[in-house]
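User: Hey, quick favor. My workstation is busy. Could you predict this chain's structure for me?
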Amino acid sequence: MATWIDTLPEAAQTYLNGKRLDEVECIISDLPGIARGKAVPARKFEKQDYFHLPDSIFYQTITGGWGEAAGDEGFVERDMVLRPDMSTATAAPWTGDWTLQVIHDAFDRNDQPIPFSPRNVLKRVVQLYHDKGWKPVVAPEMEFFLVARNIDPAKEIEPMMGRSGRPAAARQAYSMTAVDEFGPVIDDIYDFAEAQGFEIDGITQEGGAGQLEINLAHGDPVKLADEVFYFKRLIREAALRHDCFATFMAKPIADEPGSAMHIHHSILDIGTGKNIFSGPEGEETDAFFHFIAGLQNHLPSAIATIAPYVNSYRRYVKDHAAPINLSWGRDNRTTGIRIPLSGASARRVENRLAGMDCNPYLGIAASLACGYLGLTQGLRPDKQTTGEAYDGQEDIPRDLSRALDLFDEADALQGVLGEEFARVYSIVKRTEYEEFLQVISPWEREHLLINV
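Assistant: No problem, here it is.
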């Protein structure tokens, strides 16, 4: 007799083949992208259609504090209804027993989507595209560092020890020897990804010491955001097996490049399946330029969602493999908006500003929202940059406070992402910023203590 396990995605069924499922982790992404939820016995999960968590999980800061974002009724921690999306059921292959993970969607008691749940925010933006007859397609690139274990916040982060017994070396971009240094960790990443049914498009060594990049095949934005959400946990677990940490901080090591989540976008016509960025003769269309212009015009207001922490702005450093402005160019990695080499059917626009520290649902939602505004407003981009964009003027906010000011003023962007999401997000991020301002840094103690 068929059971609910027989309806699971193929990879989950393969993982459980001949095994007894012990536990199901019912999870949802909070604003930072941390997995929140409950672990329940498999027998209990089989009988439940939903479970409850308080809406306060979306008011929590990265430090565990709380933003005063509950609204007029106060901080009553009202229960949300969390329902499983069984298409996301996947293995948790690092656990000691046979465990599945399932991403849930959040609804209120009237069965309406919780507007500040990150996955719901992305679904809202994708639906706006669908309403116009468009199907957005994205491909994220994930950069991260493998570093030595560090349990002392006062200690500087160091690269991990490689297979050769030497610390990972910087400035070895695309080196296969450098990749081999992390072979055991990468083997586990591949094994975990295969068990979870994820397709890795490639792993390369980046320019930083112990910095790697994983590319994912293009696809549906919600599905890809789910995979990045899962991948962050997967990679951390693989690293821990080998006595190191995986970090997705935007700038974990001084004088090393930062880690980005580059997002490639193309838009298909739902009726024809054709890429709207290319015309009948393969030429670049108005829609292509409108999308670029949307990123140029609206990304400054969206920076607070794709660079969500004070550390995020340390990544935007001239000549350190990160953009410092919103220039665009063809096959030019110094620009914030890059047009990769491709055929007409695969023509796409790459947003290079998003940091790997962003919530993948919100980073992809914000990027698509900017492009959507460019398409619907008929915007035109600046003249393309053909040389080094680092020679141009910096035109993105340089700190979280200014970024949040721009976000709060962006009525059009908030209209796409949702006003209630924008309200809650701004309050939580400003609370985090105030928490940061209460911390006295080693730099201040070193240079100000007895000198001023």
